Give the backbone structure.
Amino acid sequence: MNVRKLVTLVAFALGGAGLVAVPAPAHAADPVYWSYSASTGATYIKVLDGVVQSDLTAQSGVTGGAKSSSSKNSTAAVKVLNLAEVGAVETKTDAVVQKALVGQTTTLKSFARTAHVSLLGGLISADALETNVTTTGRADGSASYTANSRLANIKIAGIKLPLNIPKNYAVTIPGVASVTLNYALHGKYDQPEGDLAGTMAWAVGITLLKPLGGYSAGVTLLVNPVNQYLSEVAPASGASLGGTAYGTRIQAHVGDDIQVVSDPTARVGTPVGSSNGRTLTNSTLGVRVPGILTTGVISSTTTSKKDAYGNAEVTNTNQTAGINLLGGLVKANAIKVSAAGKLQDGKWTSTMDMQLVNLVIAGQKIPINVSPNTILDIAGLGKVALNLQQTSTNGGAFQNAITAVKITLDTAQAGLPVGATVELGVAYTAIAPSAG
């Protein structure tokens, strides 16, 4: 994999991490504390021009600082036309925060297992791919990592592979693709606003050398992609924050199985310790799921801040342009949503907003001022929820969420079965008051 592509991947990882470096402790002798952000997935596919074909599937992820956290996900199958077909997938991401004699140690752990792997129409196959990655930040400011992928019975057409695949092993399928196996990259970067330590890894990475199956040269496919980041911060206090925003998500349900067609695109996450008032952005030039969905630019943002007295606020937004779904059944020039939550002196306020530009569903023009939680039953398509708004003050956190459009199919469309769901324009925020 060339350096230019690697830089692109690093930029993607940093952009989607939702991690912000905030000022480090004032004295070098003081113990170092770390905020963290990590994501683990089954597959990730990106076209050379920046268009995301499929964001992290079966994604699990954590963000935070002062406390441990854990996330896991699974799906019965993942299929991306002409590029990847895999069986059962499971991912798990953990952050373990342990008190040390002075300060604390923060350890990120990612696990991904993808079974029955077939890539590039069977040119690459494996019984199972398992990836384990760990990144640790210590109170003295040092960081370390371990990373390894086990590739059970992996085969690449026309290439003899070693029995045990070494770290960062690279091969080329002549005239088809360059391939990296058991890949890992770790670095620690000194920054005035706080050092950053990061690890990225994958079991199999592929870059097409020529067009294949309707995809252009330069398409990147990763299996078991992992991104882990630690950033120096001041000791956390006050409320804990959360939330996300993304452009699109498509899932198909067949019996008890769930086939992920496209996981959240241009997703951004709110750091638990806040972004200190700065706006974090994750954008992509568009989404292309052949026969199902195309979009233009998608951009998601999160902005948050808090103080030591329990006051906090979070604002998350998404804007998705140029939507064409299910062969034109759903079209829009643009959809924009925003969700904001604020906790001030113990009082929580919530605002949610949706803006539509020329949204048309099955020939029906949707008014720009459509009421919250409007439900339409559209023949030949299914149930369509518009401006779906939800709030909750249960579970120890104040939460709100808005979805511009959510479609549940009652008719098979473009290869999607009855029951498949499509989300367009999602923003969510959460504020959990401090225990004290």
User: Anything to note?
Assistant: The chain has a mean pLDDT of 84. Residues 30 and 140 are 8 Å apart (CA to CA). The helical segments are 3-16.
